[in-house]
Amino acid sequence: MKKRLKGSTGITLVALVVTIVILLILSGITIMYTIGDNSIFKKAQEAKDKTENAIKNEQEYMNSIDNMINEYTNGMNTQTPEVPENPWAKIDRIAKAIANDNSIISDSTQATGTTEKGESYDIKVGDILEVEYNGEAKRVRVLGFKHDDLVNTTVYGENHTKASISFEFLDFMTGDNYMSMNSGNTNEGGWADTEIRTFLNGANGKDKLNNKDYIKQVKKNYILEYNQSNTSTSNDFLWFLSCSEVWDNGYQNGAYGYAITSEGNQYQYYKGVNAIYNSDNVNLQKRPTESNNTTIWWLRSPSYNYNGSFCSVIASGDCYNNYASLNSGIAPGFCI
Question: What is the CA radius of gyration of the chain?
Answer without folding.
Answer: 46
